[in-house]
Every structure is written in C-alpha cells, then in structure tokens.
Amino acid sequence: MANRKRNIQLKIWVTEEERKLIEYKMSLVPTRQIGAYIRKMAIDGYVIHTDTANIKAMNKELRAIGRNINQIAKRVNSTGDIYREDIAELRERLGEIWRLQRTILSTLR
After folding, report:
1. What distance in Å separates the CA atoms of residue 69 and residue 47, rounded to the nearest whole number?
2. Is 107 helix (H, G, I), strand (E, B) or coil?
C-alpha cells in the first residue's frame, strides 16, 4: 500500500436510483470498473451551471405586466376608459421582456 500511486481514498454515499444511473452511464463507455469511471468523470467530466438571472428578471417583468393589465382591466370595467399612459407603460415593459428574451437566447448559442 505504501507504493500505491493513488494513496487517498474518497467515499461517497448514493441512493439506489443514483447507483443505477451511474451503472447505466458506465455501461455506455468501455470501462467496467466503477472507481475508474467515477475518477474519470470527476476529473474530466463536465459540470453545466445555468445562470437563470435573466429568466428570473423576465419573469419579474411578466408579473409586473400581469399586474398592470389587471389594474387597467379594472379601470376599464369601472370607467369605460383606457389611458394612453397605460398603453405606453405596457409597451415599455413588453420591450424589456423582448430585450431579456434576446439576451437569454444569445447566451444559449
């Protein structure tokens, strides 16, 4: 053991479902040793982190538009009038949503 190249042992706990998923993915590659597979994935595997800040900002804008539409609908139902300022605000918010959507889509390419 003193001459082992790998002399540090790591232990992990997994669920039965995780174990089956690991074994399935391992069946797709030529190795049959789970230690070699896990070591290779831990060192060379990809971790994909998705930044959802833009999506959260777009959802915030969508909620704001929803509130504005509800307020306008209440006013129209009670007075029968719609104001240009309301329409302008909705257009502005919609423009912000389109901008956020373009930003999100450009990051996915």
Report:
1. 41
2. helix
Contact 34, 22 (CB under 8 A): yes
Question: Domain count of the chain?
Answer: 2
Residue 18 domain boundaries: 10-48
pLDDT in tens, the chain (109 residues): 667 888 889 999 999 999 999 999 999 988 889 999 999 999 998 877 777 888 888 888 888 888 888 888 888 888 887 788 888 888 888 888 888 888 887 877 6
The 3 state secondary structure assigned to 41-74 is HHHHCCCCCCCCHHHHHHHHHHHHHHHHHHHHHH
Contact 103/55 with Cβ under 8 angstroms?
no
91 and 65 assigned to the same domain: yes
